[in-house]
Fold this protein.
Amino acid sequence: MRKSKPKKRIILPDPKFNDELVTKFVNNIMLQGKKSTAFRIFYEAMDIVAKRSEEDPIEVWKKALANVTPAVEVRSRRIGGATFQIPAEIRTSRKQSIGMKNLIGFSRKRHEKTMGQKLANEILAAYKEEGAAYKKKEDTHRMAEANKAFSHFRF
């Protein structure tokens, strides 16, 4: 067990939209330390979103992120030899992280040509409350709802 909690790192806002949330998202996209490539992918996706939706791309992206962000999750807990799936609220930073990782992960699994196109299409799907990332959130909520009888085991 740690003596003290690690300090939160300061995240600088991105250069184009001046938003810290964008930088966090780009950090999740980034593979092998290639941040400029990750920014290029994100900005390409935002250009595609702007063209297709005729709205502010950052607002569309934020709404899409909110749509794929789960409020509850199930956690496994062993009680008397049996393992129960116990629904639990998620703290804000973890919610945000799960939402971002789902959006990016399901973007990578799509079948478009470039990562920018994959990400843009997943963002637009999430904005319309469809797509794989949104389905994952719905499944998580459904699982929590099905197991709410075990919520008295919460830790």
